[in-house]
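Hi,

Apologies if this is the wrong queue. I'm a grad student, and the batch job for Flavin reductase from Streptomyces antioxidans produced an output file that my downstream script rejects. I'm not sure whether the problem is my script or the file. Here is the sequence I used:
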Amino acid sequence: MRIDFEPETMGATPFYKLLTSVIVPRPIAWVSTVGQDGAANLAPHSFFTVAAVAPPVVQFTSVGRKDSLRNVEATGEFVVNLAPEGLFEQVNATATDFPHGMSEFEEVGVEQEASLRVKPPRVAGSPVALECVVHSTMGIGNSTVVFGRVVHAVIDDEVMVDGHAEITRLRPLSRLGRNEWGTVGEVLDLARVRYADWEGRGPEKA
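Support response: The file is valid. Your script probably expects a header line. Output copied below for reference.
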């Protein structure tokens, strides 16, 4: 038995809660920006993924007009920092609705470091930072999708194994439904099957 849900009859907020409870886990873009007043902003966004490979473009969605979006529109730059398990409480705290102009870096006590190619600072304690310049933005309803071209990436050597960022060392947080967060659990390792090797792997045919 299945239960049917209609977005038109449920309303935006209840259906939003439904979506975020089933589209899981969601990686977190811990986005740092700088406003025109020079204040550094830091906020987690869980609508985040890779948008393109060549050029390398990542995307995050701002639901409503938040400081991250305003700063990106004003300056054209941002940094995506990985949200590591060890900074769980700080990541959560930077989602607080601080008044405009207040720096989450300062209020929460998150150490920052200078970026190489863009003005917004990086999170010093994050093992990965992607420095981005705005490629484009797209408004959809009450949300705005921000596409950023990655102009520089930095990764701690401690998380690298044979040139690969090892998931068990990265320990990224993810968002689930309600107030739930995900951590790295069991990791499955399975290579894709080439079509040339597919014969005999599919379901038996009558």
